[in-house]
Design goal:
alpha+beta; globular
Length: about 260
C-alpha cells in the first residue's frame, strides 16, 4: 500500500530536509565567497582613501575600475601604523603585520573612554591607527590620510580625512560606511557636502583646533566652517564631533605636531 504523504510527520520531514539543503547551500556559498568579500572590502576602503586624497583622476567612487584602484594605491600610498598616545609611527611591526591590523577589532578590547572626552561616542579607542602617507617624486611628504569614525544619528560613520603636506589644509573627506537616513543624514555622501571640505584649515595661526561643521546654513568662517546638512542636525553634530575628536588632543593632534616637526 502506498505511503500516505498527507500526514503531519511526512510534511514535517519534507520541510526539514528542504531547510537543511538550503542551509547547506547558503553556508557553502558564504564560505566560498568569503575570500572575495574580504578582497572587495579592502579594495573599497582603498578606493575611499584615494578619493579623500584626490587621487582618482577623472574617475569617481562609483565608476573607478578595480585595477586602477589597485595600481594607484600600490604605486602611491604607504600604509603605516601610528601610536595614538605617543603620536609616533610604530617601527617594530612588519609590513604584513601592519596590513593585517584591524583598528575596529583592536578597539573592542580597549578600555572604555571617559564620557567627558568621548565626544565622538566611539566608546573604546584602539592604541594604534592605520594611516596612509603619500610622498612626492622626491620622497617628501605630499599628503596624509587619517581614518576617522564616530556616531551620527542612527549609526557609526567610518571614513577618511586627507591633509596637504602642511598638515593643516584639508584635501577631502568621505565616509565609506554608515546607516544614516537617506536624503537627510545620508547626504554626508553628497557632492554638495563633500565639496565644501577641500581648502579648509584645521587650525588657526595659533595652532588652535578651529575646523567646525556648523548647523545647516549657519557657517560663518569661510576658512574653518563647513555648512552642515539641512534637516539632519544630529548627523551634522556627529560629524562635527568626530572630526574634532580625531583631529584633537585625544586623536591625531600629537601625531600631526610630531610629523610637522620631523619627530614622528
Amino acid at each position: 500500500m502506498a505511503k500516505n504523504k498527507e500526514t503531519f510527520g511526512y510534511t514535517l520531514t519534507v520541510a526539514f530536509v528542504v531547510c537543511l539543503v538550503c542551509a547547506v547551500i547558503v553556508s557553502t556559498a558564504a564560505v566560498a565567497l568569503k575570500p572575495q568579500q574580504i578582497i572587495n572590502k579592502a579594495l573599497d576602503k582603498n578606493n575611499n582613501v584615494l578619493a579623500a586624497a584626490d587621487l582618482l583622476g577623472d574617475y569617481t567612487l562609483k565608476n573607478v575600475p578595480a585595477d586602477f584602484v589597485k595600481t594607484t594605491f600600490d604605486d602611491n600610498v604607504i600604509v603605516k601604523l601610528v601610536n595614538i598616545k605617543t603620536g609616533k609611527f610604530v617601527t617594530d611591526m612588519t609590513d604584513e603585520e601592519i596590513e593585517k591590523y584591524d583598528q575596529a577589532k583592536a578597539a573592542k578590547s580597549a578600555e572604555k573612554l571617559d564620557k567627558k572626552i568621548d565626544i565622538a561616542q566611539i566608546k573604546r579607542q584602539a592604541d594604534y591607527a592605520k594611516i596612509y602617507v603619500i610622498n612626492d617624486a622626491n620622497g617628501n611628504l605630499d599628503k596624509v590620510v587619517l581614518p576617522i569614525h564616530g556616531y551620527g544619528l542612527w549609526s557609526t560613520l567610518y571614513g577618511f580625512i586627507a591633509l596637504e603636506a602642511d598638515l593643516n589644509t584639508v584635501i577631502g573627506l568621505g565616509f565609506y560606511a554608515h546607516a544614516e537616513t537617506p536624503g537627510l543624514g545620508g547626504e554626508v555622501d553628497s557632492d554638495g557636502f563633500k565639496d565644501q571640505w577641500p581648502g579648509k584649515k584645521i587650525f588657526d595661526d595659533a595652532g588652535v583646533l578651529k575646523i567646525h561643521v556648523a548647523k545647516g546654513g549657519q557657517a560663518q568662517d569661510p576658512m574653518h566652517d563647513i555648512d552642515g546638512l539641512s534637516g539632519a542636525t544630529l548627523t551634522t553634530r556627529g560629524v562635527d564631533n568626530l572630526v574634532k575628536f580625531w583631529l584633537g588632543e585625544n586623536g591625531f593632534a600629537s601625531f600631526i605636531a610630531n610629523l610637522k616637526n620631523g619627530e614622528a
